[in-house]
Amino acid sequence: MTYEEAIFYVIAAVTVAGSLGVVTARNVIHSALFLILALLGVAAVYVLLASEFLAIVQVLVYGGAVTILILFAMMLTRVRDIGGPIDGPQRPFAALAATVFLGTTVLAVTQTEWRGDTDEATVVTINEIGEALFTTWAMPFEIASLVLMVSLVGAIVLARGEEGE
Fold first, then answer.
1. What is the CATH number of the domain that holds 7?
2. SS3 75
3. Residue 162: CA atoms inside 13 Å, Cβ hemisphere, count?
4. Does residue 116 fall inside a structural domain?
């Protein structure tokens, strides 16, 4: 085992631990902190793949902006007012959906022909990424920002409450 593989396995373990912490933490704030840990682990994997631009985008957009948006939405809505467990009769459907998702993921990973070690690497410049972002993918980014803004406005409206409160 090379040292790159050892570093990868350590980073992967930290990322998986952060992901498990997101879904098992009882406190929403702790869950958000675990989310940041998992997203930083993914950024570290991008660094190992020599894709520094994606690592920086991962940290800035997901690790920073989206996580802060989630925290604001949780703080502005009254998550603390909900007493007791949140699960209900939808639990079997959630388990079924999770099992189907896991099966699909395992099937995709096992049936994909992975390229081995090849000498040819595709080099994409920052200019090509910028051109693609502002031409081909401009509309999806605008839609995503609109959805995030609407969710934040919705959280603010819910936090205001009724006039009698």
1. 1.20.120.1200
2. helix
3. 2
4. no
Contacts of 95 (CB under 8 A, 6+ apart): none
Q: What is the pTM of this model?
A: 0.61
**Residue 94, amino acid:** A
Give the rounded distance of the alpha carbon of 82 from its chain centre: 25
- Mind listing the pLDDT tens digit of every residue in the chain (165 residues)? 899 899 999 999 999 999 999 989 888 788 888 988 999 999 999 999 888 888 998 888 887 777 777 777 777 766 555 556 666 788 889 899 999 999 999 999 999 887 765 666 677 888 888 888 889 988 988 898 898 788 878 877 777 766 655
CA atoms within 13 A on the CB side of 109: 6
Residue 111 counted as domain residue: no
Q: Is position 8 within any domain?
A: yes
What is the spatial distance between Cα 118 and Cα 102, in angstroms, rounded to a whole number?
29
Residue 17 to residue 149: CA distance in whole angstroms: 30
Residue 114 located in a structural domain: no
- The two tokens of residue 72 are 């604001």
Domain count, the chain: 1
